[in-house]
Design a protein that fits this description.
Helix content: 40-55%
Distance between the termini: 81 Å
Shape: globular
Radius of gyration: 30 Å
Strand order of the largest sheet: 1-2-3-4-5
Length: about 575
């Protein structure tokens, strides 16, 4: 099943749905890594080997590993995901405990969302209806987002879900109920307008509830669960990803998103009760290359905008910022001035450099010399961080004009600061690369070698077996227990097992037997250059090093033999007495 699944899901096609692959070098295509922030593409996809590898963060593996990592799925769920994509029959081996629990939790969330929606039609649900009318949320919009109402009772949801066969423990795992002091359970969400959080695949993964009336917290989100990670999801991205606008509007609150969609701006999303995270930014970059930040027009919103800019500018994403006046947020602006005024606001949004430079300018009184000097220090530092020489020149001239100065000294100061920043970054990179300890460790940060000398030989042996499986039958090969690294030992065992069974040792087919860190490590090992003309000599050298290092470790760790030590001391004493 796995072999045919990989054949039917070409890794270049699958990865291209998440990463823009452009630069090509031989069989490899490169793009910006979706797993860490970078400006220079170091993420490669090899069509011949059907693997991916990031030379920056070290992640790598087959198409199955890629889907596991980027969609936050277990192995079986990733296989099912790819089977659906390829139009293949669903694999029958969906019996592992995690897959069953995940499917059950998603079904529970879906049933709960339906329960909350149905409550809008009850007498008690009128409170939510009145609130939506007050916020001018139409019934059609409520249906589109699946909005609902959590009754102001202690156990309405619990009772309804128990009637459907769910247990209190399942409800608790999904964050829908909490355990009380007396050992019983009570509903997490009560007297709240409910917003289902739906992922890009259409699954209800969690909820966000806005309290009706007074009380804290104003907004409440589902806790982290098996299916919900708020730092890796965005509210309404399931709808915004279908937009033809060419950009995504990033706002702060769920109500803002609902209002924007209702007004015709169907690309709006919001983070889930947190500032924008790096994971959310990378998620956005899969669906757009332009983000317009529309955060609240207050101190907290301005601070959150700066943070979002810092995260997004590390990706290949164009960032603009909305300037709202006369309203604190998009919802209030649209209600006061209408959708057309908001559209003009979008069209006039500032790019992130203009926005940040304006923020710096507003901090200082340029009529005061001391403040002008401080302005020039901060503004030239900001401009110096721009990557393009032309961009730096344009903004340096603007800074000079704002300060009432000649262009030349400002241009010179910007370039001086830029060279200093580049030099500092280069020195830091050289320092890190020159550290022997760092060089000897695997790129995958979750792994660490306690015996780097032995690990290098273990990596070499694995590399040879990957390229020349016939070497796996050699009788002098060491046992995996003699490897210093458990991860390398497991990879080695898997390879030898497959060789013994005459099965393929291609990385694309090892996803079921190796975890994500091990697969990344294997792909990294396989990427290293090697000459097979001296493979037999290299094999013997690797074996020798592994055996010697194992003996040194076992001798060092051997328990102290007190009887042998006493005998040795007696013999030594006799020799001393004889010499007396």
């Amino acid at each position: 099943m796995t072999h045919s699944l990989v054949d039917r899901n070409d890794i270049v096609d699958v990865v291209s749905g998440y990463v823009r692959l452009s630069k090509r070098s031989g069989a490899n295509q490169f793009g910006l890594c979706p797993f860490h922030s970078e400006k220079t593409p170091s993420f490669s996809v090899n069509a011949e080997k059907q693997i991916y590898h990031c030379f920056g963060c070290g992640k790598g593996g087959s198409v199955i590993n890629f889907i596991m990592e980027i969609e936050n799925l277990g192995y079986r769920d990733a296989v099912a995901f790819l089977a659906r994509r390829a139009g293949m029959p669903m694999p029958e081996e969906q019996n592992d405990a995690e897959s069953r629990k995940r499917a059950r939790m998603l079904a529970l969330n879906k049933d709960s969302a339906r329960f909350f929606y149905e409550q809008l039609s009850t007498p008690e649900g009128r409170r939510a209806g009145e609130y939506m009318a007050q916020r001018r949320i139409s019934p059609a919009t409520a249906r589109n987002f699946g909005l609902g109402y959590a009754p102001d009772t202690w156990d309405s949801l619990e009772k309804a879900m128990r009637q459907k066969g769910y247990t209190d423990f399942e409800l608790a795992d999904a964050g829908l109920v909490r355990r009380g002091k007396n050992g019983g359970f009570y509903d997490t969400f009560r007297n709240r307008l409910m917003f289902p959080v739906i992922d890009v695949r259409g699954n209800v993964i969690g909820f966000s509830g806005r309290i009706l009336g007074d009380g804290e917290p104003k907004y409440m989100n589902s806790p982290e669960t098996l299916v919900f990670n708020k730092s890796r999801n965005l509210f309404a991205l399931n709808l915004a990803k279908k937009s033809k606008s060419g950009y995504i509007i990033l706002s702060e609150g769920n109500i803002d998103v609902v209002s924007l969609h209702q007004a015709g701006f169907d690309s709006a999303v919001a983070s889930l009760g947190t500032s924008l995270t790096a994971e959310q930014a990378r998620l956005l970059s899969r669906y757009t290359n332009q983000v317009i930040i529309a955060y609240d027009n207050d101190g907290a919103g301005l601070k959150a905008s700066q943070r979002a800019i810092n995260i997004l500018e590390k990706l290949d994403v164009k960032v603009k910022v909305l300037r709202m006046s006369g309203a604190k947020d998009p919802d209030e602006f649209i209600k006061a001035k209408g959708p057309e005024a908001f559209r003009k606001l979008l069209e006039g949004s500032e790019n992130q450099v203009d926005y940040r430079l304006r923020a710096v300018t507003e901090k200082y009184d340029l009529a005061v010399d001391e403040q002008k000097v401080e302005f020039l220090k901060e503004a030239t530092e900001l401009v110096a961080r721009l990557p393009g020489a032309v961009e730096r020149q344009v903004y340096a001239m603007r800074v000079a004009a704002q300060a009432g100065m000649q262009d030349a000294p400002i241009l010179a100061e910007v370039e001086r600061r830029h060279k200093r920043l580049v030099s500092r970054a280069y020195r830091e990179e050289q320092r890190q690369q020159s550290q022997p300890e760092r060089q000897s460790q695997p790129a995958e940060k979750a792994l660490r070698y306690d015996d780097p000398d032995s690990a290098r030989a273990e990596e070499g042996l694995i590399r040879l077996l990957s390229l020349e499986p016939a070497l796996g039958a050699r009788p002098e090969l060491p046992e995996a227990e003699r490897f210093s690294s458990p991860a390398l030992g497991h990879i080695y065992s898997v390879l030898r097992g497959r060789i013994a069974r005459h099965e393929s040792v291609s990385s694309a087919n090892l996803g079921e037997e190796l975890n994500g860190d091990e697969m990344s490590l294997l792909v990294c090992i396989q990427q290293a250059p090697v000459s097979l003309t001296q493979s037999d000599r290299a094999l013997q050298d690797y074996i020798k090093i592994i055996q010697e290092r194992w003996q040194q470790r076992t001798q060092k760790d051997a328990p102290l033999d007190l009887r042998a030590l006493a005998t040795s001391q007696r013999e030594k004493g006799k020799r001393y007495e004889g010499n007396g």
